[in-house]
Protein: DivIVA domain-containing protein
Organism: Jeotgalibaca porci
Amino acid sequence: MAITPLDIQHKEFDAKMRGYDKEQVDDFLDQVKHEFELLLKDQKDAEKNLKFAEEKLQHFETLQDALNKSIVVAQDAADRLKENARKEAEIILFEAEKSADKLLKEAAEKADDINRETANVRRESRNFRQKLQLMVETQMNLINNEEWDILLNTTPEKDIHTPTLDEVLMNRTHKVDDLAKASNFDTEVTEDEDEGQVEAIDISTETK
């Protein structure tokens, strides 16, 4: 039975002529000593366990701090990676749009060049055709000229005036000049119309 402070306080000893019974007092003191030794031992064990628990708690707190720091570092790293990925995606998108705009611009310029070259080729072809047609018509008119029939007619007639070679060449020169003037007028009108068509093509291309 463990001794409490009340037991010590209310403990009564048998009185004798010489005072307390020494044996009872000694026994009680021995019991008190033993109980206090047990209490001291329990106290030391409790303090030891408390210290161990405190060390464990401190260890866990340290682990928790390290874990929290690791989480923060990982979160920061994830945020940085996310931000870098976003910036890189924006750069890639910007470069792609820039390249696409450049390609579209180059394609439009090339289309304009092709349209202009096509218009020039058509105009030059049309002018060449007109000149060739005029040349052929001029030669046909010279071939079909009735003066050749008169000149080559072998039946002599006194009343028929036979033109000289100079007269024939002079008449031919006048007719060639007249045809050339008419051809130049038609060519100038055609070139003006072609230039108007080219301008219309350029305006239509720019509008698109």
Notes: Residues 197-208 have pLDDT under 50 and may be disordered. The beta strands are 15-16, 19-20.
